Amino acid sequence: MASIIQTVTTNTKMQMDDISKLKNDKMNDLSNLNSEIWKIQTKIPDIELKLEKLNLKLSNVKSNFQILECKIKNLSFIKTDKLNSINKSFETFKKNLNTSFDEKVTKLAQFYDEKVTNIINEKNDKFKKIEDELLKEIETLQSSINDYSDKILNESKETIKSDIKLEISKSIEKHKENMIKMNDNILSFNNDIVKLEKNIEDLNVKYNTETKTKLQDVEKALESLNSDIQNLQDEEIELNYKLSTLNDSKEEECNKLLKLQEETRQLSKETISYNLMIKEEEQYRRFLHNQLQEMKGNIRVFCRIKPEKNIDNTFKHEIQSMMETSDLKESLVISEPENHNPNNRLTASPTKKTNKQFSFSFDKIFDESSTNGEIFEEISQLVQSSLDGFNVCIFTYGQTGSGKTYTMSNLNDGLIPRSMKLMFERIKILKSLNKDYQLYGQFFEIYGEKINDLIDDSINKGIEFPNKLFDSEINNIKMIKLESTNQIDELLEHSTSKRSTAFTMANDASSRSHSIFRVYITTINENNETLLIGTLNLVDLAGSERLSQSQVTGIRLKETLAINKSLSSLGDVILNLKSKSSHIPYRNSKLTYILKDSLGGDSKTLMFVNISCLNSHFNESLSSLRFASKVNNTVLK
Ligand SMILES: Nc1ncnc2c1ncn2[C@@H]1O[C@H](COP(=O)(O)OP(=O)(O)OP(=O)(O)O)[C@@H](O)[C@H]1O
Question: Which domain of life is it from (predicted)?
Fold first, then answer.
């Protein structure tokens, strides 16, 4: 235990020794430190003084910086002002340039360019100098600060050193930042200046090119204006020359015009009197024409002998025609063939020997050699009568196959096409005498007692005639305006196929109806009313046949009876008209009833009796001649 206690005591003693040793060491350290602190403390007032001095210097530097900033600001203001004034003077310069368009523009621009460049260069130089000076000053300050800080660092404690260093570096950083900002400002200022210079340069270039192009345009416009003016002056000279020649000829023309006016006045006076004369002459011509027609007779009969060219003469009977000097009529002698059976044509003998002779007298006789043209010459005066205001009726009468249709409507030269051609020609002449005539037409047939339209819908729809001036019987028959010969040919061609025909002994396509082509000659009066002047009726009668010879039955017999009845009614009407009977039996047949206005009064009637010289047709020819002769020779009461 004692050893343990001893060991503990020894250990404690040892520890105590160690502690006292450590204590002494620490005490020594402390006294050393205190002496150190004391030393530093003695140095602090110096350092503080130095620091104060440094701060003073720093504040001086700051104030210097501020002054410099102010100076820079002022300089920038000055520069802006100057730039503004330069821009202003540049604007004035531009205005001057605009007004004068002078060549000096380029020189002035160059001059101002140089001036601007110089000013900018000067400013740049100044700024550079200031910048350099500032940088130098900053550098010296930096070095002095560095010196000071070195010294401080060397002399002062680490912490104080670091503090001071920090502070100084902060202030330096701040200054550096300021410097950078200032540099940036200077840079951006320089950039602005460069931009401004660029703008000014661009403006100069733009202005110069614009001015140049404007000048070129103006010069071009001036050039073209000058040439225009020159042209106009030339034209003016030419026009003046023309004007003077025109003035010369104007007087001449005026005189001529006056002369012409006088002549025209004279001519119009003469025209009026000529027109009056023409009117009087026309009336006189009408009167004479009508007198001539009346002298010839209002009802006349012509005879036409159909040619039988390819038939031997032994089959023909003799027909002789001659002029009668006494009453300007022509006579015809027809000789009966030998062995002729008066009741049957089929037994007529083929011999030239004759026995009995029959004599007839007519207004005109057309032998076998006559043409449609020659026939028309005789009847053309009747067409004129219809234009003069009379109603005219022309018939072709005769046995079937005797040439009635050929005479009346043969294409191109029949009475219908020729009459229409003549009418169209006369109307043209009348138009030149201020008489406007229009022709309207109807074309129909009377079959039995029925009226059929021969104008086909396919060729003409017809028109509504302005006034219902006409017979109600034929009001429903198409009325068309007649305008050309072509139209008439077309009408005739179509009507042939529409007409009622049948095979007979004498004609393969014998007409079993009476066809009537009626032309209305009209004019329009001052009240715009249509007036009827005259009518022309061209009637192709159905073939006459003696029942004893035709040997027809049934429907053909009925047709023949109707044809013969209407033909004898026509004969009766004409006979009564010629003998100036008080009663004219128009109503006895449809044919006479429809023609009542064109038969009688002062209307003109002409009948063609068509005959054949064939022995086989002798009886029919004789019968036709007797009928026609009766009409022609009736003595007026
Ligand atoms: N003058 C003439 N010259 C030449 N040919 C004629 C003449 N007259 C009639 N013919 C011819 O005779 C034939 C019968 O004539 P057309 O048809 O004119 O007779 P038509 O009297 O009208 O007969 P129908 O009463 O039966 O109709 C026709 O082929 C026609 O061309």
Answer: Eukaryota
